[in-house]
């Protein structure tokens, strides 16, 4: 293994140094990154054999360069006033949306509603839900997924949503007809 490492490193070291130097202007940082790549190579080769050494070395090098820049990113302490500026999810749109969800959940067929409530609202692991309901884990996963998709369709039919950049609901408007029409949905499926 030592011979394999030495051969691989000698064959690619200069090419790796040039690759790093094109991306990192500081020569000392280039040497540090190259040494980090060598250390990662040592630890990985102790665990097993690399089938594509050149590609693997360049992948490790790209990751190490990214880690170098990530660690150098300047951080600024945020003012404490920003902490109080974030919205409280227990009030406003998310809380009001929660009140709209009850009739939708109630409208789901029981075989989909029970796993969804246990997994998403009671916080049980899906394996535990399967055990409690006496069904397979695959069945629980399928039912929870189908229930989530059904809930999404109901919400999109019922409400006009406004989302932030992360996809979180910031506001919503109930469409005409509201959530009242979900009382008959449970009998459809």
Automatic annotation (TrEMBL):
Keywords: Sigma factor, Transcription, Transcription regulation. InterPro entries: RNA_pol_sigma-70-like, RNA_pol_sigma-70_dom, RNA_pol_sigma70_r2, RNA_pol_sigma70_r4_t2, RNA_pol_sigma_r2, RNA_pol_sigma_r3/r4-like, WH-like_DNA-bd_sf. Pfam families: Sigma70_r2, Sigma70_r4_2. SUPFAM superfamilies: Sigma2 domain of RNA polymerase sigma factors, Sigma3 and sigma4 domains of RNA polymerase sigma factors. GO terms for molecular function: DNA binding; sigma factor activity. Residues 11-73 form the RNA polymerase sigma-70 region domain. One of its GO terms (biological process) is DNA-templated transcription initiation. The keyword Transcription applies. Residues 104-151 form the RNA polymerase sigma factor 70 region 4 type domain. PANTHER family: RNA POLYMERASE ECF-TYPE SIGMA FACTO, RNA POLYMERASE SIGMA FACTOR SIGZ. Belongs to the sigma-70 factor family. ECF subfamily. This is RNA polymerase ECF-type sigma factor. It comes from Solidesulfovibrio magneticus (strain ATCC 700980 / DSM 13731 / RS-1) (Desulfovibrio magneticus).
């Amino acid at each position: 293994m030592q011979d394999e490492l030495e051969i691989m490193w000698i064959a690619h070291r200069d090419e790796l140094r040039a690759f790093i130097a094109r991306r990192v202007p500081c020569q000392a940082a280039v040497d540090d990154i190259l040494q980090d790549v060598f250390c990662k190579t040592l630890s990985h080769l102790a665990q097993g054999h690399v089938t594509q050494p050149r590609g693997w070395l360049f992948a490790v090098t790209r990751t190490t360069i990214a880690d170098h820049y990530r660690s150098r990113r300047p951080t600024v302490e945020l003012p404490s006033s920003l902490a109080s500026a974030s919205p409280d999810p227990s009030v406003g749109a998310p809380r009001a949306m929660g009140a709209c969800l009850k009739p939708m959940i109630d409208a789901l067929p029981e075989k989909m509603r029970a796993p969804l409530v246990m997994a998403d609202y009671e916080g049980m692991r899906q394996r535990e839900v399967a055990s409690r309901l006496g069904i397979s884990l695959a069945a629980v996963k399928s039912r929870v997924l189908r229930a989530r998709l059904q809930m999404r369709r109901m919400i999109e039919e019922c409400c006009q949503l406004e989302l932030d950049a992360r996809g979180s609901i910031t506001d919503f408007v109930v469409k005409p007809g509201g959530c009242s029409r979900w009382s008959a949905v449970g009998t459809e499926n």
